[in-house]
Amino acid sequence: MNFTEVLDVLNDASLFELYRLDAAIRNQLENPARIAAVKQALTQGQRVRYFDDRENRIVEARLLQINRTRVLVQNIADGRNWTLPFYMLDLDGTDVDIAAQSKRGLDKNSVRVGDRVAFRDRQGREQFGEVIKLNTKTAGVMVNNRRWRVAYSLLSPIIEAEAEAYTDPELLSDPRVFDNNHTE
């Protein structure tokens, strides 16, 4: 499923149409036959993936327990346990990336915690940092131990080569590469 195309259609839908679609989706998420099919594909100890909507990314986990309506998983990265509904599990390795639609910048659906991004501050200087939090209208971006709140439309992605250049301590101290002496 192309999530970018789906979002394009949803952007044109009325609020009532979105509500009606939400009700239909909830009915499918709670469908006992669908839940039974997912349960059959699971085994305790299995490595699974789930989508974390707060961070807008897939998380790797280990399945600890299968209950009647939920599963208990352990996040592999941080070791924390989570109880999740079956519909949050990605058993098919689905691509959940949503491409930015606007030429003006990114949107909340195309940014993940941990992404490297760039933006211009109020003085017009380009800033480079890492997304640390997704809010409703802004992203929390850490730049040189300073936290910024930046509107999604002002963000642009940076490619890995650029990201490495802006995290290399030697390059960061070179004023030709990055201005460390900025004030907001």
Number of helices: 5
Order of SSEs: HHHEEEEEEEEEHH
CATH T-level fold name of the largest domain: SH3 type barrels
Q: Please give the share of residues in helix.
A: 10-25%
Number of strands: 9
Brief characterization of the structure:
With 184 residues, the chain is an alpha+beta fold. It has 2 domains: 3-88, SH3 type barrels, CATH 2.30.30.140; 108-172, Roll (SH3 type barrels), CATH 2.30.30.140. It has helices at 3-11, 15-29, 32-40, 160-165, 169-172; strands spanning 47-52, 57-66, 70-75, 81-85, 116-120, 126-134, 138-143, 146-151, 156-157.
Can you walk me through this structure?
The chain is an alpha+beta fold. The chain has 2 domains: 3-88, SH3 type barrels (Roll), CATH 2.30.30; 108-172, SH3 type barrels. The chain has helices at 3-11, 15-29, 32-40, 160-165, 169-172; strands spanning 47-52, 57-66, 70-75, 81-85, 116-120, 126-134, 138-143, 146-151, 156-157. The strands form 2 sheets. It has a 5-stranded antiparallel beta sheet with strand order 8-7-6-5-9, with no helix packed on it. It has a 4-stranded antiparallel beta sheet with strand order 1-2-3-4, with no helix packed on it. A hairpin with a 4-residue loop joins strand 1 and strand 2.
